[in-house]
Design goal:
Elements: E1 2-7, H1 15-31, H2 48-69, H3 79-98, H4 101-124, H5 127-148, H6 167-186, H7 192-208, H8 211-225, H9 233-253, H10 255-260, H11 270-281, H12 287-292, E2 300-302, E3 310-312, H13 316-344, H14 348-364, H15 376-388, H16 393-404, E4 424-429
Antiparallel strand pairs: 1-4, 2-3
Helix pairs in contact: 1-2, 1-4, 1-5, 2-4, 3-4, 3-13, 4-15, 5-6, 6-7, 6-8, 6-14, 8-14, 13-14, 13-15, 14-15
Length: 430
């Protein structure tokens, strides 16, 4: 039998102060990764928007670093860092020959800064704290964008006003909120304070008309529902009522058929995306470009045989082939599978959230770009990857009971039992 007595050295920062700093960091990360201009792509020029986004990401990194140093450090694996390094390194090698080194190098540096901020954030905060802050930040930015862009719904799809988010970007932010709320419900929390934001976020996701996001969101909710051990009566009744009302509305108003048969325009249709993906397969004109791509700044591809000459690469995986080559694509595919393996081995209390996020983020990446770029999608995926590693699994076990017992109305969860690096541990064997 082994017992452990831990003597902690140094004082922990106040919980309220830590929560405020953490939320500011996450809000800065979300704010600097959403689109500030619609339909424009970074080409290497340091205009005010680029400089402002870079400044916000650097500020978020600095705050996350100092916050991690002021309290006990939690265990965190580093395998994800090596995976990201391989992908970014491949893109830089490709950009060196393709002639986009300056633009792609800056994008790679920005992605690295975001990853470092997420790493230090997770070193100093628990799973619940980080993902609750992420959901709150996504919800705040998404709600402001939806309210200021509500007039765009008249055209059939809700888009952001300030910031000017595309419908797909807005659906992503709303989807993160829905997944987080579903996670808390799976673990037994049920109240109007929790359900109301989830319903609002789900309504925003529907209003965007993003079929991929909604389909992947439903798939995520389905796999999360499998983790419910004993459904509460209120949850079952509420779910049946909402489901019944939704079915009646869809069948009597024709909203569902109109949503499924929505026509795209220009290069936004699925058929036109196949044109770009076919062009990406023969994009490389040398063995070097095939292996390493052309850099992360390459987001537009030339197409032939159409009335248009170029279009965006609307798929994270097709984008990887062009931006990082076969090497980056293979590493990223293995990375995603490796994360899924770690997710399935996580404790049940975390597995519901991790699996739902993985399905939502990776699923939508098949036809939407940004999973391995400076986007909110990357923030969620990299945080998920770091926590799903074997090196982080011990901390998940320590936090599991804390996460499960978190009160609905509490401002902060009970302190997680962690051992700081400066702790003195005494062990006795019997």
């Amino acid at each position: 039998m082994t017992t452990a007595a831990t003597l902690q050295v140094g004082a922990r920062r106040p919980a309220g102060q830590g929560a405020v700093v953490r939320f500011i960091v996450v809000l800065l990360l979300v704010a600097c990764t959403v689109g500030w201009r619609r339909g424009q792509y970074f080409a290497g020029s340091l205009d005010p928007v680029v400089v402002a986004k870079g400044g916000l990401s650097a500020l978020a990194l600095a705050l996350a670093f100092f916050a991690a140093q002021s309290g006990p450090r939690r265990r965190l694996g580093t395998g994800s860092v090596w995976m990201l390094g391989a992908v970014l390194g491949s893109s830089v090698f490709g950009a060196l020959v393709h002639g986009t080194l300056m633009a792609s190098g800056l994008v790679a540096v920005r992605v690295a800064v975001l990853a470092a901020a997420v790493f230090f954030l997770l070193r100093g905060s628990g799973v619940y704290e980080v993902f609750s802050s992420l959901a709150l930040a996504c919800g705040a930015v998404g709600l402001v964008a939806a309210l200021t862009g509500v007039s765009s719904a008249a055209s059939g799809r809700l888009a952001g006003g300030v910031p000017p988010l595309s419908p797909n970007e807005l659906a992503l932010l709303a989807g993160v909120v829905v997944v987080f709320v579903a996670w808390r419900i799976v673990l037994g929390e049920l109240s109007w304070r929790l359900g109301a934001p989830g319903v609002i976020a789900l309504g925003i996701a529907w209003a965007t008309g993003s079929r991929t996001a909604l389909l992947m969101l439903l798939a995520a909710l389905a796999v999360m529902a499998l983790h419910v051990r004993r459904a509460r009566v209120g949850l079952v009744v509420g779910g049946l009522v909402l489901g019944g009302l939704g079915a009646i509305t869809a069948l009597t108003t024709g909203v569902l058929s109109g949503f499924l048969q929505r026509d795209g325009a220009g290069v936004s249709t699925l058929e036109s995306r196949f044109v770009a993906w076919d062009a990406a397969a023969s994009w490389a004109d040398s063995l070097w470009q095939l292996a390493f791509g052309g850099g992360l700044s390459v987001k537009i591809i030339q197409v032939q045989g159409q009335w248009w000459n170029e279009q965006p690469l609307d798929s994270s995986w097709v984008s990887l082939l062009v931006q990082t080559g076969v090497l980056g694509l293979v590493v990223s595919a293995g990375w995603a599978v490796w994360v899924l393996r770690g997710v399935l081995r996580a404790p049940r209390e975390h597995r519901a959230l991790f699996l739902g996020l993985w399905v939502f983020l990776v699923g939508r990446s098949l036809v939407e770009s940004g999973l391995f770029d400076a986007t909110p999608s990357f923030l969620g995926f990299f945080a998920l990857s770091l926590l799903a590693e074997g090196g982080s699994r011990a901390r998940l076990g320590e936090e599991a009971q804390t996460v499960a017992r978190h009160p609905v109305d509490g401002p902060n969860p009970p302190p997680t039992p962690v051992v700081p690096r400066t702790a003195l541990v005494v062990r006795d064997r019997f």
